[in-house]
Amino acid sequence: MRVTVLGSGTSTGVPIVGCQCKVCTSADEKNQRHRAAILLEEDGRVLIDTGPDLRYQMLKQQVRSLDAVLFTHFHYDHLDGLPDLRPFTFDNKAELVCYANPQTHEIILSRYPYIRERAVYSNVPHLSLKIFPGNEEDGYEELKIAGMKIQPIRLVHIPKAGVLSTGFVVNRKFGYLTDFKEINAQDEKFLEGLEVLYLGSPIDKPHMSHINHAEGLELIEKYKPARGYIGHLSHQYLHTELLEKWQGVAEPAFDGQQFVFH
C-alpha cells in the first residue's frame, strides 16, 4: 500500500495570498502547502477529501482514475473541489462512490443538489454518495475498497457547534485524523501501535476546533506509532524549524510525501 500526502496545509493554503512572511516567501518546497488531501493506493485508488486544490493535486500526481472518495467533514477546504471529480467519470458509466458521515452527507447534498437528482449531464460529476456503514452512536463498520480495509474513526471537530469529522485507519497500519478536537473513546483501540499516525494540527496555540501541536505530540506519545507526523499546518512555521523542535516524537508532513507499507 502507498499513501501520498496531496496537501499538508490549513484552510488558506501556504503561501497565503498577499503574505510576505518568511514561510510564505520561502523557496523550500516543503513550506508550500496545499489544502489537505490524501491518496491511498493498493489494488486501486481512494481519495480522502476534495479541497479547492484538487485539480492541481490530481495533475501533479498523475492520478487518472479513482475507485472511491472518502470525506472527513464538510468545511470548504476539504470539500469544495468536488466538481473537479467530473473527469474521473467521463469514460466510466458507473458512478464514482463517495462516503461521508451523516452530517457531511446532508451538507454535500444541500451544497451540490445535482448529486441527488442523478441527471445525466456532461457537465456534472456522476457520483453515488453514501453514508459510512454503521452509525455515529455505535461506531462505523470497516470498508473494503481497492484491496484496502478502511476503518472510519469518529471525531468531533467543533464541540460547541456539534460539528463532526471522520478519521481513517487503513489496513491497521496508517492512521489519518485531521480537523478534530476530540476522539471517540470507543475508537481509540484502532489507533494503537500503527506504523504511521498522521494528525492535523495547524498551530501551537490553543484552538476551539483543532488540537494544537502540544496536544498532537501527546497523542502520538499515547498511541505509540512507529512514526508520527503532523500536517494541516499554518504559514507560521518553517518545515526545518518544526523538524528540529519535534525531533524524537514527530515530523512535519509535506506535500508529495509518500509512505509505503508492505
UniProtKB/TrEMBL annotation:
Mind telling me which Pfam families this protein's record contains?
Answer: Lactamase_B_2
Highest taxon of source: Bacteria
Looking at the record, the residues that make up the Metallo-beta-lactamase domain are 34-232
The membrane-spanning stretches of this chain are none
Q: What is this protein called?
A: Beta-lactamase domain-containing protein
Q: Which source organism does the UniProt entry give?
A: Turneriella parva (strain ATCC BAA-1111 / DSM 21527 / NCTC 11395 / H)
Task: Read off the lineage from the record.
Answer: Bacteria, Pseudomonadati, Spirochaetota, Spirochaetia, Leptospirales
